[in-house]
Design brief:
alpha+beta, Immunoglobulin-like, Neutral Protease, domain 2, six-stranded mixed sheet, five-stranded mixed sheet
Amino acid sequence: MLRLQEKFKSIADAMSKKSFNKNACFAILGVFLQIFTIIVFSVLSAQAVDFRASLLLKEDGSATVRGNLEAAFSPLNPRNFYFRLDSDRARFRISNLKLFDEKGLPLRIKEFIPGEYITEYPFSHFEYEIVLSASNLLPSAHKSSANADFAILYTDDLLPRLELRSRPVSFELTLSAPQGYQCFSVNSAERGFAFEDLEKGVVICGKNIKSQSFQIGGLVTTILTTGERDFSETDAKEMITEILEFYSQRLGRLPEGNIMVSILPLSTGKRNGYWEGETRGRAVTIVSSEMPFRSQSLQRLHEQLRHELFHLWIPNGIRLSGDYSIFYEGVATYSSLRAGVVLRRIRFEDMLSTLSAAAAAADAETTRDFLLQKKPSYAVGLAASFAVDIRLLNRTFGRHGLLDEVSEIYRKYSKDPIAVNGNELFGNIYGINMSQIKTELSAAINSAGLEFSGGRLRVVNKPNSRQKAILRKIGYNSF
C-alpha cells in the first residue's frame, strides 16, 4: 500500500510541473495500468476458491458442517442442495439441514428425495449435521467413515454436490477435531486444506497416527499408519518406493507434488485378507484386516499398493470423461500382476493362476456385451486386458503392448485440459466385446505360448521364437 501512495505522489508532482508533456502522460498511464493489475490480481487471489466450508468432527462419530459460497460462484443448480449418498444412507446420515440466502435469511427447504433438497431461492450458506459412524458401518475406504481411533473424510460425500459445467469446483476446508487428533491431507492451505476438485478431497484424522514423509524424485510421499500391524513403516516405504519407480519408468513421471498413502486397520467383523482400497486425486487409502502370518501380510500389502498406486496415473493423472472403470480397473489389475512378477513379489505361475480365474469368469459372461454392459466384473476387465496385451505384443514381436498404449495415453492426456470420452479412447484400443472375449482369449493364450492344463494356464513345452518374445515381455524367463 505504501508503494501505491508513493506512485500517486509522483503522479501529482509530475502534473504540477510545467514540464508535464507527452512522455509524462505515457509514464502516468503505465503507473495506472500497474495499479489496475495489482487490484485485479488481489481480487482474483481473494477469490481463489468457489466456496469455503468448516467441519467440526466430534468424538461420537458425527460432524457439524457449515459453508459459504463465494459471491462470484454460481453453481449449475443454485436451488438444488444434494449429496453423493445413496438414498438409504442419506436418510439417516444427514440431519438438521439449514439453508440461507445471500443476506443470511433462512430459506424454506423441501425434500425432493432422500439426500436431495430444493429451495425457493438460490442458497448461499448451508449448515447440517452428518453421521460418520453407525453400528452397521465399519470404516470403509470407499466412503467417509469413522471409528474410535480415526476418521476417513471424503469431501464428495461430506459436502454438498456443487457443480460447474466447465471445470471442477474448488473449495477451502477448515477442520476442528477432538483433542489429541491430528489431521492430514495432500492439500494444505493457510487456514486448513485447499482442494481444486470437490470429488478428490481426502482428509485423514485420528489419534496415535504415525506419519512418515520421504522424497522420490519430485514427489513428497507421506505414509500414515495406526495401530500394531504385521508390517513396519520401513516395509511400506520400500514397497511404495519401488512401485512408484516401476510405474514411472513404464508410464511416465508424475508431476511434482505431494502423495499421501494411508494404511489403516479394519474393525473386527471381516474375514482375514479382506481389504478395500481407494485412490482419489493423489491420496491412496487402504483399509484392511490382518492376515494369519506376517509373510502373507507383506505380500498382500504389496499387492494392494501395486493396484492403488497405478491409479495415480490412470485414471487420476488424466482427464477422461464417462464411466470407463471396467477398462482402467482391468488395466490396473493386469499392470499390478505384471509389476509383481518383475519386482519378484509374485511368481510368474501366480500371475497365470490369477489369469486362469479371470478367464473362467470371462467365459461365464460371454453373452453380455463388453462395451455396453454397465457393470461387468473387474475379473472380465482383467481377462480382456491380458487378451489385448498379447494381441498387441504378437503384432509387434513383443515390442509394443498394452502398457505401452497406456503410457501414450498418459503422456498425451495428462496435460490436455479438454476431457475426452474414456470409453471411446480405451474402446478403440481394446476393440472387443463380450461375445468375442472367449475367442480373443483363446487366440491370446495360443499366441503367448500358453495352454490350459487341469483348468490352469501353463507355458507350453516348446514355445516358438515369437512366443518366447511375448513370454519374456510379460515376465517369463525360464527357457
